[in-house]
Amino acid sequence: MNIFRWPLTIPGLLCLSLCWALAGYSKPAYAFISGSMVCGTSVPDYNYTFEPGAAFRIPFSGNCTAIRVFPFGAAANLSIQPTSGTAPAEIRVLDTYSNTYMSKFGLGTAGAACLGGGKAGPCPFIPVNGRVDYTYYLVGTAPYSPGTRTATVRLGITAVRYPDYAEWLHTFTFRYTVASTACTLLSPSSLNLNFGTISSATLSNQVQRVAVSVNCPTQKMADVYLIPTQQTVNTSGGVAKTTLDGLNMQALWGDTNAPINFSTARRLLLGTGINSVALAFKPQLAGGQTPSGAFQSGYTLVINYL
């Protein structure tokens, strides 16, 4: 009986040993082989401010040196991941070498785009110490809703035909704020000028001046118009009627004393900070008229930011 028991115990021992080995074995997580390139990279500004709905084009670049040989070139990999903010912009990367948008591929996948672009066709051979320079552009349209948003952008490479050799080379946070950068009015929205009592003898000396102040977050070009409420008498000379028959009003630019042409805008450069648009108004008698009584004259100032 003992002769037959001995071999029967061996399979049990082998099973226990094998089961223990399988239970203790864990397949390691897959890791790509990095260190094939070293790059000096540019980092876009920390924060961009865009007008609602404005198109943007932000460059980012790098200068890379190959540490290993790339017999069939280096394919570009791209990842763009929104990280904060609601309703983010759809951000794409423009490859100006091929004038196409780069596809989003994770590491280990060799797409059609080659790092640094170049001629159409297969990615070029890169020797050890070979230089690869690139410039790409983040492009998109800013959302219309205000707020700050961020996205993580990663540019990487996968060795063509050697997908184990892959790594991220350029990672940065793209931060942008959507806010109106239009100038804000500091003066009251409605201004009243009082001429008091005037006479024909002192009419030529009568003038009222006013400065309309605006605060601009950034330097802006603007076209400025003055539109009279009453009927115009001389459009290019800035003369319009008042509510008193026989009495007209001439509008002037306060800084130059030049007549305001009601049909033509004056282009101004508004600097960052507080700016003033100066206006002046002079009453005039219509030919052969000697009116008396109260009068009013109204105008609307329009600032069109370019």
Question: What is this structure's SSE topology?
Answer:
Blueprint (H helix, E strand, L loop, with lengths): L1 H23 L12 E5 L6 E3 L4 E12 L7 E11 L7 E4 L4 E2 L29 E11 L5 E13 L2 E17 L5 E2 L22 E9 L3 E9 L3 E3 L4 E3 L5 E7 L12 E5 L2 E13 L13 E7 L1
Parallel strand pairs: 2-9
Antiparallel strand pairs: 1-3, 3-7, 4-8, 5-6, 5-7, 8-9, 10-11, 11-17, 12-16, 12-18, 13-14, 14-15, 15-17
Textual characterization of the structure:
This protein is mostly beta strands and 306 residues long. The chain folds into two domains: 37-178, Sandwich (Immunoglobulin-like); 184-305, Sandwich (Immunoglobulin-like). The protein contains one helix and 18 strands. It has one helix at 2-24; strands at residues 37-41, 48-50, 55-66, 74-84, 92-95, 100-101, 131-141, 147-159, 162-178, 184-185, 208-216, 220-228, 232-234, 239-241, 247-253, 266-270, 273-285, 299-305. Strands 10-11-17-15-14-13 form a six-stranded antiparallel beta sheet, with no helix packed on it. The protein has a five-stranded antiparallel beta sheet with strand order 1-3-7-5-6, with no helix packed on it. A hairpin with a 2-residue loop joins strand 8 (147-159) and strand 9 (162-178).
